[in-house]
Specification:
The complex is a heterodimer. Chain A is mainly beta. Chain A contains no helices and eleven strands. The chains are: A mainly beta, B mainly beta.
Amino acid sequence: DGGITQSPKYLFRKEGQNVTLSCEQNLNHDAMYWYRQDPGQGLRLIYYSQIVNDFQKGDIAEGYSVSREKKESFPLTVTSAQKNPTAFYLCATQGGAFTEAFFGQGTRLTVV
Amino acid sequence: GENVEQHPSTLSVQEGDSAVIKCTYSDSASNYFPWYKQELGKGPQLIIDIRSNVGEKKDQRIAVTLNKTAKHFSLHITETQPEDSAVYFCAASGMSGGSNYKLTFGKGTLLTVNP
């Protein structure tokens, strides 16, 4: 069953802790993205990667880190440096420049 | 970088009426313009897209128009139904640096179709 899987669906983090969000795909897509969604703010790009072992900062990369060691996986770490991490995080994949992007179901992160 | 503006932020229509959502983009190099629908608690899904070499594209009740000169594109939904109620996002993408591409999204439109 092809697709993109994000886990967990809900995540709670204490202030000062790092947390890693998982994103896995079996669509054999080269490009993977992380977006943050806040009410009224749309989808803001955090990081993206178009090939293994390479990634670029998006518009709001501060306080986040990523890795792309495998084509199938693009985990996002929310570090303690992120001042306001509570949000809905979406991962997406894309097979090429003019093709459909597929989104995961999202992870809702709450800082407690 | 690319900047995408989307209007209106909320739109309420009666069932059977038409709905129009408009977007503008800033980077004249952008050449791919998809529209996504997001239902509550889910990830967005593509509903229609258009490339810059086409002025209009239609798929049943949904159509998209593109004006490259004005850097403007719009989503048109006819004969709206309650199940069309959702958040709609426009996006723009182009190639930079020869092979680099990414999707930049608008802030979304909450469409409510009243029975």
